Amino acid sequence: MTAVDVLVIGGGPAGLESAYSLANNGYDVAVLEKEKNICGHLNQAHSLFPNFQNASEVRSAMIDKMTHPKISIHNDTEAIRIKRDIDKWGVETGSGKEFMAPALLLATGFKSFDPKYKEELGYGIYDNVITTTQFEAMCQKGSIVSPHGQKVKRIAFLNCVGSRDEKVGNHYCSRVCCINAVKQSIEAKKVLPEADIYCFYMDIRMAGQFYEELYRKSQEVYNVNYIRGRISEVSPTIDKRLHVKCEDTLSQTPMKITFDILVLMTGIEASLGTVALGQQLNISGEYNFAKSLSLHMADNYSSHKGLFLAGTCKRPLTLPEAVADARSAAGEIKNYLKTLKQ
Ligand code: SF4
Fold first, then answer.
1. Domain assignments of the chain as residue spans, ordered by start
2. Pairing mode, if any, of strands 225-228 and 88-93?
3. Which residue has a Cα nearest atom 8 of ligand 1?
4. Across-strand partners of 100?
5. 217-247 per-position pLDDT tens digit
6. Minimal-distance CA residue to ligand 1 atom 2
7. What's the CATH number of domain 2-109+271-341, 3.40.50.10140, 3.50.50.60, 3.40.50.10170, 3.30.300.10?
8. 228-234-240 Cα angle (round to 5)
């Protein structure tokens, strides 16, 4: 049994930032991460919107913070069972370890929508239909190639895959994919200046600082083409490119275009850990995201004493929002632990 002041479930950016802030305030923190590596989805990012900062810089800074003597990181450690034991939270892991602390922070993050559920888009059928995460890996290598070896002349990005979608039951907006598509379309032009880039959207949502400017720049400097319309069908051409059917809903023109690569901007869903632990703790809210006590008044609190929430386990957030939320959660936990001593 490992006893600490705070147990953090989830070693993504939110969990790590909370752990660091608490450790700096003198608390012993254990971070339980089910994967081999900490930093979560940041491990799959090449550059970050809206300023193209290299994701590895942010990752390294986060990993450096984890050398704090008050933090212990437990990789490959999945929280399976959580129970409240008088005034403490007990966590049992898949490998049979046990942890205990007066405060528990759920920072179990998100998962990306699985585009196989949108079979009309051909993901898993045609190799050149890829996800935004796979495209990010290509950018990381500095090489955007078709799996069939053709020169890449035309790339399409499709927004709202698995978000704002009645059919898959996700009515909400994932908030980050519009700006990410803008960022990735610019990355595409930097690697392949001769290629034509198209971005298919329902609405363009540019609510963050410098997002609108980047959207304009993508058109004025990088000549990215934006088409308001959904892709209705993807089929292969004889030379293994992609034949895409859609409608430009602004000009009400049906279109058929051939692309070398189609990038699906997959939305954010509650992670499997968020769903499983949320249900176990009876704090699952809309779309299985964890439900905070009050959005405006107590967003880091759950309905249970000593159980706190941070980051995208609650809803889609950008990275800076998740990190800021994590610092806020650490502040609330600090206040809570002080009241226990009084
Ligand atoms: S951020 Fe843009 S792409 Fe993502 S769900 Fe919202 S509208 Fe769609």
1. 2-109+271-341, 115-267
2. unpaired
3. 160
4. 3, 90
5. 999 999 999 999 999 999 999 999 999 999 9
6. 178
7. 3.50.50.60
8. 125
Query: Which residues touch 166 (CB under 8 Å, ≥6 apart)?
Result: none
Residue owning the nearest CA to atom 4 of ligand 1: 177
Pocket residue to mutate for ligand 1, from 168, 265, 266, most atoms within 8 A of Cβ:
265
Tallying the residues shown for the chain, one arrives at 342
Residue 85 has pLDDT above 90, yes or no: no
pLDDT over 90 (residue 342): no
Do residues 13 and 39 touch, judged by C-beta distance below 8 A? yes
End-to-end CA distance of the chain: 26
Ligand 1 centre and the CA of 98: distance in Å? 40
At 285-334, the pLDDT tens digits run 999 999 999 999 999 999 999 999 999 999 999 999 999 999 999 999 99
pTM listed for this prediction: 0.96
Would you tell me which CATH number, out of the four given (3.60.110.10, 3.30.70.360, 3.90.230.10, 3.50.50.60), belongs to the domain 115-267?
3.50.50.60
